[in-house]
Amino acid sequence: MSSDVILEEFEVLESIYADELIKLSEKEIRIDIRPDDVEDGEESLDLSLTVYYTDDYPDELPRLSLEPLEGEVDEEEISGLLDGAQAVGQENIGMAMTFTIVSHLREQLSTLIRTRSKRRQKEAHELERKALEEEEARTRGTPVTVQSFNEWKTRFDREAYLRKTRDEEDRLKAMSAKERDEYKKMAVRLTGRQLFERDKDLAASDASLLEDGTVSVDVSQYDRIATEDDDDDEDRLEFSDSD
């Protein structure tokens, strides 16, 4: 292809991209690529496309390169955009293809921005969902099993013992020396229940409390004597003044 054909395409491109195109040489141009439609609040992502035309253009693909102008684009995304641009160029071999390549790249930038936005929204929703699940689990509590109850009971008893010990120490500190001695003596005295548990025969030991020499009373003898006294009273003669 003669340089006249390339110059003719340059003139067409300059009329379309008056503010975006820079002519670097007789065979090389640079065009700033901006997405077609970007909604308010979406990130800005602009690229610079360099096109180098070979002597066999348009029967041969031009050499293409992309560089970021604004926004972040990783190497994998750049490679994907270039592969798509070259595929479009291959479909238009034999024809002026620069405008078609630029239009394709603008569409792909818009798609890339929307994909990123949806991914960020999905990640935000996922974080919110996890936060809600954690909050529900925290407020709902943990299901009680035999093992978890026994573990809780062990901790509870230990904490209760430590708390009682601290209270006991504080109470002793507030006492005088005499009060502490008396308190300790009372503390070691066994209760009635403790005594009973230590000596199972305590209930039967009351008989041993009788003092030596105590006289036992036969209730049946007392009843017999009382009956005889009553019989004697009946045998007595009664006199009245009328006799």
Automatic annotation (TrEMBL):
<dbReference type="InterPro" id="IPR032378">
    <property type="entry name" value="ZC3H15/TMA46_C"/>
</dbReference>
<feature type="region of interest" description="Disordered">
    <location>
        <begin position="220"/>
        <end position="243"/>
    </location>
</feature>
<feature type="compositionally biased region" description="Acidic residues">
    <location>
        <begin position="228"/>
        <end position="243"/>
    </location>
</feature>
<dbReference type="InterPro" id="IPR006575">
    <property type="entry name" value="RWD_dom"/>
</dbReference>
<feature type="domain" description="RWD">
    <location>
        <begin position="8"/>
        <end position="112"/>
    </location>
</feature>
<dbReference type="InterPro" id="IPR040213">
    <property type="entry name" value="GIR2-like"/>
</dbReference>
<feature type="compositionally biased region" description="Basic and acidic residues">
    <location>
        <begin position="123"/>
        <end position="132"/>
    </location>
</feature>
<dbReference type="Pfam" id="PF05773">
    <property type="entry name" value="RWD"/>
</dbReference>
<feature type="region of interest" description="Disordered">
    <location>
        <begin position="120"/>
        <end position="142"/>
    </location>
</feature>
<dbReference type="Pfam" id="PF16543">
    <property type="entry name" value="DFRP_C"/>
</dbReference>
<protein>
    <submittedName>
        <fullName>RWD-domain-containing protein</fullName>
    </submittedName>
</protein>
<dbReference type="InterPro" id="IPR016135">
    <property type="entry name" value="UBQ-conjugating_enzyme/RWD"/>
</dbReference>
